[in-house]
Design a protein that fits this description.
A: four-stranded antiparallel sheet, B: four-stranded antiparallel sheet
């Protein structure tokens, strides 16, 4: 019973290409997040959204943008992919803010930029 | 944001209890303590969380020190499927997001 679905597990793109990473959740969660994970650096927050059409920058938003047109869908966009954006990208969602709200993660999308 | 300190790696024998420590000496009074784990080739999954009292669920137990400056995740009987990276995270009451560190890599030896 997959609840957070990331559209692609593996992608290979070329430098300069525009890349879309899609994430869909079926739990009616208000909050959605995009993280990237790199060896030795743990997970770093790129962007998050707490409502439709709302977005907030995380720790490392440079080079990325996001789109949330519907509550269940949160897209991460790399306008012009670069090799330093090769990484594992993880989408997550949670209910509206509270001290104890729990994140549910997708399986991840491994992006390689050549 | 308050930080957590965890050992980089730990080993445990299968079917033995495992105690994963976490130090968070700068924790504030309203920070929740969350634990997540990440199995190979998967996204992180929620394990347990607590504020002040010890907590138990079907996956694990969380023991929180009286001064809240440290906590311990307890797996009562480690199985090979528990081999993962375990993250201890402090979550502020009003924050929406979690800040992950590098966690503890748990190896379970058959």
């Amino acid at each position: 019973d997959v609840k957070v679905t990331q559209s692609s597990r593996y992608l290979v793109k070329r430098t300069g290409e525009k890349v879309f990473l899609e994430c869909v959740q079926d739990m009616d969660h208000e909050n959605m997040f995009w993280y990237r994970q790199d060896p030795g650096l743990g997970l770093r927050l790129i962007y998050f959204s707490y409502d439709v059409k709302m977005k907030e920058k995380g720790d490392i938003p440079e080079g990325y943008s996001v789109s949330r047109e519907k509550k269940e869908r949160f897209s991460l966009i790399l306008e012009s992919a670069s090799t330093n954006q090769t990484s594992m990208y993880l989408c997550a969602s949670s209910h509206y803010r509270s001290g104890a709200n729990v994140l549910t993660f997708g399986a991840g999308s491994r992006l390689t930029v050549l | 944001d308050a930080k957590t300190t965890q050992p980089n790696s730990m080993e445990s024998n299968e079917e033995e209890p495992v105690h994963l420590p976490c130090n968070h000496s700068t924790i504030s009074g309203t920070d929740y303590i969350h634990w997540y784990r990440q199995l190979p080739s998967q996204g992180p999954e929620y394990v347990i969380h607590g504020l002040t009292s010890n907590v138990n669920n079907r996956m694990a137990s969380l023991a929180i020190a009286e001064d809240r400056k440290s906590s311990t995740l307890i797996l009562h009987r480690a199985t090979l499927r528990d081999a993962a990276v375990y993250y201890c995270i402090l979550k502020q009451v009003e924050a929406n997001n979690l800040f992950f560190g590098t966690g503890t890599r748990l190896t379970v030896i058959p």
